[in-house]
Specification:
By secondary structure, the chain is of the alpha+beta class. The protein has 15 helices and ten strands. The two termini are 49 Å apart.
Length: 471
């Protein structure tokens, strides 16, 4: 690894070449004189706190030659005159370059073979407003941002415990993205923590361009055929802090406002932040409603389709579910077409300006639905069931799980159309096998059902009141 030579002009020239001084408009190098000695300062324009840099330089430039003669090397200079808290020295080129690109200032002084690094950066960022996909009626209304240090502070604010660990890792040979593991040292699952550390260390990619999703894909063995999510995400600091208090590990990735909660099991998706801002009875009721919606959104259209394939088996008291005025379009095609149209409206709404997105979604759904029925493309009953499924998908907080259930629902419809009731049963078995064989980043995907833990299962199904023994 290349190091600084201690020859001032040679080191300045080397750093000028590496940083592209003169080519990169946002990397600046400035010649200084400190106590009669030549010096050179490098900084990344747009990251630095001008006030902090100005105060540091004002003090350093005021040093006299007599004061400079009292220091022999950069370590001594830092201990005597390094007034800023986050100040270190370094002579290896790679960490020097990485530090500057992270926003630190680099100072070279004539006659010294190490550089002084002081952290006076201020990343451009947005406010900690509440995330759009995790709103609550009560409770805090702040959210994570794209700055990993700010996200760490939001959790520290809620857990003021010295056993809270913020463990930093750097991933990506080119991007050198900061990844932070957050956990309570006395409550974390040690085997799971070691497994996650090992997987992070094995990541061999040049860039983490898509934040936490790139990390998740690089950390586990690909299962492209399995749509079920192996990671739970949240943009809420209170939800992340509560998970840490329960012994989970929160993985934060710089430049991403979402954090990963590990390990994740299938049953964790039953819970939502709103449950904990209501009394235990109300929170338990909301969980059972969410669980019922999970199942209903999966089977309601396949079961109805099976009933319409065999109308003679429908009992008289369920006759109202039948189709009053059938048309010539196959029922399966209608159901699959509407599944596609719902996703089309979602994508169109995402690419529509905010002031128009709500109106566009409502008008698009009304116009398409009304004209499709008038043109005898669809029967009204199909619209009712697909509308219920579309609404049910928004009753649970995980978009990934919603799309997993959607693909399983489509699979059940196709298998039911081909093999009737046996196709439906076969589709359910395929789904259960996929869930059972899902490999999370750590732990077991079916925990606490397997391995069975009644206490943990009870906490998942029923909202437990806070008492002296339950934190």
């Amino acid at each position: 690894m290349e190091t600084l030579t201690g020859k001032f002009q040679a080191d300045v020239q080397m750093l000028d070449d590496v940083f592209g001084i003169g080519r990169n408009y946002d990397i600046s190098g400035r010649a200084l004189v400190i106590g009669g000695k030549n010096a050179h300062l490098y900084f990344l324009d747009g990251y630095g706190k001008d006030v902090v840099i100005e105060r540091i330089l004002a003090f350093i430039l005021s040093l006299t030659p007599q004061q400079m003669r009292t220091v022999r090397d950069m370590d001594q200079f830092a201990s005597h005159f390094g007034t800023y808290g986050e100040t270190v020295t370094e002579n290896q080129m790679e960490p020097i370059v990485t530090s500057l690109l992270l926003g630190k200032c680099v100072l070279l002084i004539e006659g010294m073979d190490r550089a002084l690094l002081f952290d006076a950066k201020a990343y451009p960022t947005r406010g900690v407003q509440e995330p759009t996909d995790g709103k609550v009626l009560r409770g805090s209304h702040d959210g994570f941002t794209e700055i990993v240090k700010q996200n760490s502070a939001l959790i520290r604010r809620r857990i003021r415990d010295p056993k809270l660990v913020m463990e930093n890792h750097r991933v990506g040979s080119r991007s050198k993205t900061d990844v932070v593991l957050c956990y309570l040292d006395d409550k974390v699952d040690r085997p799971a923590l070691e497994q996650i550390r090992l997987r992070l260390a094995k990541i061999d990619v040049s860039s983490i361009s898509m934040g936490q999703e790139s990390i998740a894909e690089a950390m586990h063995r690909p299962q492209w055929f399995n749509p079920f999510p192996r990671v739970r995400y949240t943009e809420r600091p209170d939800a992340a802090a509560a998970s840490v208090m329960e012994g989970s590990i929160v993985l934060m990735v710089d430049n991403s406002p979402s954090v990963m909660i590990l390990p994740t099991s299938f049953f964790d998706f039953i819970q939502e932040t709103n449950d904990f801002y209501f009394p235990p009875l109300v929170g338990t009721y909301l969980r059972f409603v969410r669980f019922f919606v999970f199942l209903a959104s999966l089977v309601v259209t396949p079961v109805w389709y099976l009933a319409m394939m065999n109308p003679e088996r429908i009992p008289p008291y369920l006759a109202f579910i039948g189709i009053e005025e059938p048309n010539g379009v196959p029922l399966l095609l209608q159901l699959l077409l509407l599944e596609l149209i719902v996703d089309l409206l979602k994508l169109a709404s995402l690419n529509t300006p905010d002031v128009l997105s709500t109106s566009f979604s409502m008008l698009g759904a009304l116009i398409l639905g009304d004209f499709a029925v008038r043109a005898n493309w669809l029967v009204p009953e199909v619209l009712v069931y697909i509308a219920f499924v579309a609404i049910a998908n928004f009753a649970q907080p995980s978009f990934e799980l919603g799309y997993a259930f959607k693909l399983m629902r489509v699979l059940l419809l196709i298998l039911s159309a081909i093999f009737s009731i046996w196709g439906f049963i076969g589709g359910i078995i395929i789904m259960l096998v996929l869930i059972a064989t899902t490999e999370p980043l750590a732990g077991h995907y079916l925990y606490p059902l397997y391995p069975f833990n009644w206490k943990a299962m009870k906490h998942l199904l029923f909202r437990q009141p806070i008492n002296r023994d339950n934190t």
